[in-house]
## 1
Amino acid sequence: MTRDPDVALAGFIAVVRRMALQLLRDYRFAIFGCGAVALFIASTSAGLGEYSRSMQEYTALRTSALRQSGLESVVLIRIPSRFLFMSEGGERFLSNVLIALPGYVDSPHSSIGVADLLPRGLPLDWSFAVAYLFSLAILMSTHDVIARQRQDGTLRVLLSYPLKRVIILLGEYAGTLAVTVPLLLVAFLGGLIVALSSGQIEWHSEDWARFAAFVFLSCVFLSLVAAAGLLISILFREPATCLVVATLCWVVAGIALPAIAQPLAHFISPAQAPREQALELESARLKFGQTIRVSSEMMNPIITAPDLTEEQKNQMLHKVQLDLVRQHEELIRTYTSELMRIRAAYLSTVEKESELSREISLGSPMSFYVSAINDIAGSGVVNQQSFQRAAVEFTRRYTPICRTLRDQLRPLATVSGPSVQDGPYRLQGVTSITYAEVPYDHRLLPSFGGYEVPLGASLRRALIAAMVLLGLDGLILWIASRRFNRYVLA
Amino acid sequence: MTRLSGVIAKRLQLHLRSVTWFVSAILIVIVFATSARRSTTLFDLDAAAFAGDHLAHVVDSQRVFQVYSALSIAVDRTPAPLRLLARGLDDALPSSAIIRGNFGPTSLTSRQATPVSSSLPLDPVQVLGLFGSLLALLVTCDAVGKEREQGTLQLVLSYPVRRSVVLLGEYIAAMLVVLVPVVLCVVLFLTISGITGRIALDSGVLLGAAMFITALALLISTAAVTGLLIASRVRSSTTALTIGLFVWALFGVVYPAVAPALTRLIIPVDSLTSPATSDTLTKYWRNARATTAEMRDTEQLLQQRMVQARLFNRLACLSPYSLYLASAESSAGTNLSSYETFIVSEERVAAQFKKWETEKLREYPTRGFSYDMTDLPLDITGLPANEVTVARLQVSDAATGVLVLLLWNAVIFGAGHITFANYDPRP
């Protein structure tokens, strides 16, 4: 053991160089590393393609939605995130539509548009490429570093250096990073060039901060993977065992852990079953339906009266309907708010379960990293949440304007029924007023949009995630150095 | 024969004692159970959505007396029973057609499904295929190299047994250790679904399940023979395992991820002009009805996408895993053909309806998009009934996939046989 810092430094550098050269000569690193870089760059074009498809669909849907929006409801369509290529965040599984009603936002719980018939397969984006492909590539080249050096005898040479074992271990680690980080930077730069040269996205100046955060967090995450590989190579003596253990660890962390998150969340805080919600809605319908059914009995005698002319029939029906509307308005309001309460309670349990499931799946380093990148990119769940907040805000502005307009335009509205009213809840036998054909100035209704995720919040979350990953990294290295101190050569 | 069984027994012993096999088998069961649970939840939701839609359509087609509305009848597509295993295109394709006769376009709507939040969006079929083949590769890749490194290979080859018998023994043993847990998963899942009344275990379902299990066995066999080929080609067991993993990632992960993009590159689909938002909105506000132009665009788009999907299925021959998925979907009845059955009956019913309408309602005055029912009651005797179509299992499609998989197997096994014959067993 030397106490001379110069000797220690020279030794450290020698270890780093050795390790770097060993990695560079390793065919596994070449195959998996180059494969990962190629797929990373390819994932950029895949993500950009996804974005342009979503934008086309968005534009088309918006045109169609404007036609359907009015004083009854406004159809709100979610704008796809610009950073789909960085992190898709399950955006394709999230519904892209909300419906603003006076006083309430409802989620019809399904996307609109024509479904793509090709299986979308894995979400090929930057965060996926780093979390699953690069991590596999790095794990494949680091999982048996020590075990292999022990087997081919080079470890004996290394340990004969006048250095502390911790320094040797750190040297090996630094050597790994010295090769992998430049490889990563090449991939990231390649991806960035593809994204910028495609001309499909607008690139603002603040996006550089998002890109920098992505690069930093990815490097931190992959250095954690490298540390884990090093630990495996110390814990197990045979290279073949190391390989199997590393593969299993990757499968457990990347697939098995996230897989059990949802059932676990369901076990802890089960969302209300859709069937239960349907039963509740049905009982409310029956309760109110009894009161309202009288109306159709009032209508039928007029409709079937033999001695009246069509003109008279229509006049009488109209009068009866207006009376009914007045009588039932209060009742309908109570009924509607009851239905909304049931639906909101249901949606909140669903939301709670999926939130918990997301939180549990953060136990997997891969999911944790992907979710942090998702925060940076402001896509997927984050985009959906800010869309929802904006929709609630929109409804707050829309409601009073809509109510005032409706009061003014009541004489022009079409009174229909008694019929199956065409609502989300099929209000049987309720008389209704439709404003679909009433002319009014559309500009009076508030406009919707501008809900991009702010940069500050994104960077703050990214920083916290980086701290957590770095802490984990330190912990693994500490355990590895403890084990390495007691490593038996023979 | 006894020699072969001797080799198999010896290999089986080794496999069953290994930690890798044990841990992997448990992992497969856990992940399969998770995906089976998700699949069951989705199945229940879809069954409920189908029942609700169908009921609403029956009510709609009879409410002409009550409302001044156009007549409409519907053709509904039931959820295929075996979508419990492979959902395929069942969600993406329209599930009901609402026919409005002479006054409006036939609107194709899809089932309104509540998306189930899941951190593992994999079908049971995908779980079994991916992890079954991974396990088969892990088990076979280091079979020869490890024995050579330990020196037992020379002992095995000194038995009075031909090398091909040894190879066959390795193959059969690997197949047994992987297939047994995997097939048990499928059988147990289908039995439980049968007992809980989700599916009727009739001859059709059993035939589909049998076709599926054949495809699964062939996929795993492809992985096993590939593993043996790698093992007899590469000397070090670590290298063999690494190459095995690489092959698995290439065919199981990379190809499925790249294939859709490749298909889009070969057959691009025109940009959308006006897809029918009414699909969702119809369910929300019933009066939001698609216009003829919207429906025409939607149908055109659907046609283009079906052409894409057909090419995608043909390209599946390039990867055994994709081929297996395609045959699994065919045997579950959740591929394109199930939709073709549906659209044929839709066209037949629409033709009947229009014919009836033209003859029967000639004397009724019309108003905009509906009949003016001033001369009530409207006589609707002879109105064609709503129809329900049932997904048909596409045994012939599945059989083609199975044959191509067999070809893959034969070629790789032949290559493995030749390499192993020349293998140098010295440590």
## 2
Amino acid sequence: MLVDTNIISEFLRPNVTQRLPKTERFVRDALEADELRISFVTHFELLRWQLKQNLQRKGRRTLVTLRQFLDRCPILGLDGAGGAGWTRAAELWASARTHEPSIVIDDADLLIVATAAFHDEQFVTFDTKLVANLEAIGFVRVVSLPRQ
Amino acid sequence: MDHSRRLALLKRPPIQRQRGSVRIEPAPRTKRSNGRKSDIEQACVGASLVTIAMNSAVATTAPTGAALVLDVDALWARLPAALRAQITWVQAPITEGLQKLRTATLSDDLLDEVAGTLMRPLQTLSRAYVNLMASNRDEVRAALMADLERDAQLVQDYLNDPDAADTAKWVLGFLRSFFGTVLTLVEPGHLADIDFDAMEKAMNKPDACSFLRGQVAIMGAIDGVKNDASKERVTELIDIAFLQLIDVRDQFRKLGVWLSAFPDETSEQRRRDALRYAGRLRELVTDEEWQAFDRARLGNLR
């Protein structure tokens, strides 16, 4: 399964085991079972934030730790098979825009979803609206994870 | 550039042996017949180690600046007296540079300055060391590996900080993979072929010579341990070395060279470490910072 950035960022927050114990358990179990995947978009979002912090002289140690964490996570992208993942993203975008009524999906979400589709992974997110939109365009390998 | 031309550029004069001693000849200037090559390219032709071992696409593009040096004292002791006498000058700048890393205010500029100052002495020392490889390459490789193992232990014992020790393990593990690969695959003649001027020019480019910067930082950390520097400073230098060398690793991967800091690591160890680092991130990043992260998340690309 490929999890959305919002799940990974919650998983990495302080006191997640108290605030969202089921989410913490879900991600931990998936990681231990070698089933968890994240997208390079998530990698990009997390890394750019910490790189910025580092440039502002606050958080070199955090950056090192984040890179060590990301280094151990299986990360998937869109670039294999001659860029076929990007074609998949374009198809998803076109399906959403031609839907009646038209559906707008953020580019970041779209690229993460396309990564899951390209690698034939189930997509898991907290975002119920995104799940509904994806289901509306016939994207069925998507699961909404309750924020708990 | 075709393979034969590159090899021709990399060719160096033979090592001249005189009554059991080894004389080091200066590296030849590389001649360009058609157009000016980029500084990084020149630096690679002159100085890179691993690139030469790999395919021709790799050979002209990866900016490394690596030298076969980590523990200067140990390496110095292994050189024959006659060889040491020829390059005595390298010791003072190396000592001074590492001392600066221990004592001066640490910044990117300082690292650049020290790396720039140490480049020539380190490469000279590296070249001298490579000449020993002609007699027994396995011995040279084994000695370097022993240095890495000993340094990893030294750092671990000194810091008593699992995070920093882990990072040092990554750094020294990456260097072990790198040196192991290079010393297995690369002809000693190629290793000793160094174009100092091109390397100095490449040092001015932000994405070039990351290897040298990382290497100098970890040398500074090890030197700090030996000279009882503050643990904070040693940790900082290790972190800097990590950030430089993980970029180098990524540059190699872009070129198809998949070096790993932990080549023997299992999937289970990777997952366990991921969970451990997740736990550390929960301690390091506050809720407020995560809220700021949420506000800065990627939305639409246009």
